[in-house]
Write a structure and sequence with these properties.
By secondary structure, this protein is α/β, with parallel strands linked by helices. The protein has helices at 51-59, 70-85, 92-106, 111-129, 151-158, 172-187, 215-222, 244-250, 264-276, 324-332, 350-353, 359-368, 394-398, and strands spanning 16-21, 24-30, 41-45, 62-66, 132-136, 168-171, 189-190, 201-202, 234-238, 256-261, 283-287, 296-301, 337-348, 372-379, 402-405, 408-410, 414-417. The chain has two domains: 12-181, no CATH class; 190-417, Vaccinia Virus protein VP39 (Rossmann fold), CATH 3.40.50.150.
């Protein structure tokens, strides 16, 4: 008996960008990490296109498929960003309205409202800047004057090139992000808690959260381990990302670390970093939704800190819709703690300053999980955003303190244990 498969639905087919060039209809695979649809209208653009014209077209949703000098395309992108960030001189009426708005903000616009307005503005900014498009050959080559060789960066982000896939198109902004991620992956991020150079670097992959803000790493490196020590001390690192916390735990008095994640990019990244640090005998990296099987004396989790929907897969380390990971960790912790064990929750209180989550809600979730807060360690953020007074969220960022939490203990946010 033979069974025929139904024809694939158009919804499952990869998106395609269409345009006309030299009187002929053209198309290419459309690539967008944030899941943006391909522009419905595309025009060819080169060095003769003025920034003002490009800005008008981009705001209308018209894709600008670049055919000029690559470095000039970068300059155009910068010019578009300046027009978005510093709008043209407003009319007298617009100035009056803006002053009213500013006065209202000074009197106290709720932080949560400011956050949502900021996200909307950033989304619109990304949409406009994403209209400058670059075409790639089947091997990820770029046939433009003064174009960089970005084939390795593209391979790291998109996977191995295949002739069958043919040409593709992505935004210049996305390409620059991939090149930047490639450079970070080449040079790595120095982590003081991993020891002295040169063997103290973590190499983040494209799409995996980079540990450039090391405050939370230091918390895990210095937090006291549980006083009850089993014959084999096991720790779990839930949502390992680059594997940095697993490596830090492995260098402490811990026999075995099990690191879990669901993202294939994170799993590959963590495995590579653990191998580079010569810790594969101490750290096991595996795919799992939160917890692996078994019990551990320390279970560490650094979930996304804002309970909101991510705008793209790249935002998954920052935004956790409905606090799924946070609540899943708190709700499942007791079942995986060894006797006398602790869970360490590393969590920023940024969401509380924004009004997206209250401290009472967090404590209620801890209690609902059958957990008891044992202690807490706080650390102030030191990243540059805290010092940017022009940042719409400056007040909320400035009041932030990161902390770790433990089930069976509450650590720097808080750590807690099962009662």
């Amino acid at each position: 008996m033979s069974i025929s498969s139904p024809a694939p639905s158009t919804a499952s087919l990869p998106p395609t960008l269409h345009w006309t060039e030299a009187g002929e209809a053209c198309s290419a695979l459309w690539r967008s990490e944030r899941g943006a649809p391909p522009p419905k209208r595309v025009v060819l653009a080169d060095d003769t296109l003025s920034a003002d014209s490009a800005y008008r077209l981009a705001c209308e949703g018209t894709g600008l498929l670049w055919r000029g000098d690559f470095q000039n395309a970068r300059q155009l992108l910068q010019a578009l960003a300046r027009r978005i960030d510093k709008p043209p001189k407003a009319s007298k009426q617009a100035k009056t309205e803006r002053k009213k708005s500013a006065d209202s903000a000074a009197s106290g616009v709720p932080a949560g409202q400011a956050f949502h307005l900021h996200r909307q503005a950033q989304s619109q900014r990304a949409r406009v800047l994403g209209m400058v498009l670059i075409e790639f050959s089947a091997d990820y080559g770029i046939a433009l004057r003064r174009a960089p060789d970005a084939r390795q960066a593209c391979t790291e982000a998109w996977g191995a090139a295949g002739e069958a896939a043919g040409a593709s198109v992505a935004s210049l902004r996305e390409l620059l992000g991939m090149i930047s991620a490639h450079e970070w992956r080449k040079k790595g991020v120095e982590i003081a808690a991993l020891g002295k150079p040169p063997n103290n670097r973590i190499y983040p992959h494209y799409g995996v959260f980079s540990p450039v803000q090391g405050e939370y790493v230091d918390l895990v490196a210095t937090a006291p381990l549980p006083s009850t020590r089993p014959s084999k001390f096991v720790a779990f690192d839930i949502g390992t990302g680059t594997g940095v916390l697993s490596a830090v735990l492995a260098l402490r008095d811990i026999d075995q670390v099990v690191a879990t994640d669901q993202d294939p990019r994170a799993l590959a990244c963590a495995r590579e970093n653990i191998q580079r640090l010569r810790l594969p005998g101490h750290v096991k990296v595996m795919q799992a939704d939160l917890f692996p099987e078994g019990l551990a004396s320390v279970i560490v989790c650094n979930p996304p800190w804002l309970p909101a929907r991510p705008g793209s897969p790249l935002e998954g380390a920052v935004y956790d819709e409905g606090s799924r990971m946070l609540l899943g960790f708190l709700g499942g912790l007791v079942a995986h703690l060894a006797p006398g064990g602790e869970g360490w929750l590393i969590l920023s209180d940024f969401a509380e300053h924004l009004g997206l989550r209250t401290r009472a809600e967090l404590l209620a979730a801890i209690e609902a999980g059958g957990l008891k807060v044992l202690g807490r360690m706080d650390v102030k953020p030191e990243h540059p955003k805290v010092l940017e007074t022009t940042d719409p969220l400056h007040a909320a960022r400035g009041g932030r303190g990161d902390f770790a939490l433990a089930a069976g203990g509450y650590l720097g946010p808080p750590h807690f244990s099962a009662p």
